[in-house]
Amino acid sequence: MTGLEVVNVGGMPTPMTSPLTLALAQTDWLAPADGHLVCPPGLPADAVARVDGELIATIRDHTPTEPGEPLAASTTIVHRAELPEVRRGFDDYQDASARALGAIVIRHPVTLSAPRHLRSLAPGEATRCG
Hints:
By secondary structure, the protein is mainly β. The protein contains one helix and ten strands.
């Protein structure tokens, strides 16, 4: 996961001297790699900060017990924020809209979905093949 943006919705700035760490949480299908990102210190109330770096997770192993339909398991990429110095997490860090953006479906065998749009072309532009 890259391009993480943090919005301070609280009434106070984030701590200047205690790092606010950001990490992925383990889910039923996703196992996060070790590591975390750090939110810029002193983020003012209502401010937005883009956090450089990436958070990585792998899909857990799945062993079918019998023949059946292809696997299609829904899960959500969940991330968390924590102040390690005081061992305190922020329960409401990832709100419902952020959770909706993290919704994914794990499929086996892999299937392709139809493209919704081509983000690389501006309206009216075309591409040539060959």
